[in-house]
Amino acid sequence: MDTRTPDGSAGDADYGSIGSEYAQYRRPDPRLFEVIAEALGDARTVLNIGAGAGSYEPTDREVTAVEPSESMRAQRPAHLSPALDGTAQNLPFEDDRFDAAMTTFSVHQWQDTAAGLREMRRVTRGPVVILTCDPQRVEDFWLTEYAPEVTGTESRRYPGLDELETGLGGRTRSALVPIPVDCTDGFNEAYYGRPEALLDPGARLSCSAWSFVGDDATERFVQELGRDLDSGAWDARHGALRTLPEYEGSLVLVISVP
Fold it and tell me: pTM for this one?
């Protein structure tokens, strides 16, 4: 049974509270878009689960979007079709309805990951494509030095790659996705070479892990990172990241075919 917030959010984060500026800070990056589009192959009908504001939905295919949060559905741009109110573990579609299915930065929100993966596979006759993070790599990011509560939260929330493989069955492979230094999709690692950006409260609010830490941890992060940026201490340790064109962090693409 789904447990939903008044906004309709079905995961552990309430997007009615934290998602008001999501579309501003989490703009789909065209290079990540190409990675996803290639993985979808020649599919004509695509299911997008946890579709949010429509990031990474292809516009040259027939897309059916499913999103439980009312505030996120309201942020979908006019050129995309409205999203259905629903969750991954209870999809209202017949078997093998879609050529392909996708979900981006969503699988860690599902209340029942195994049920959601089974449903995703059930209604899809072709590739299932998941953009997610490898929890074994999340805490390797420099953010851990300043906000271990945030990266620790993320590493606990994301399902392991083995769990995804088992849940999807079939032939499943995964590959790290390089993150561009000017990535427009503002998840935490997107700011690997632009640490100043994470001093913006809106940027942090658009990364759901920050909603799980207390104000004291957030205030400490702002003070300590701000101090180290002013003094040059951050650049002394991590400054090479500013000129690194791409960063291989925890971002991973999982592709499963029957």
Answer: 0.89
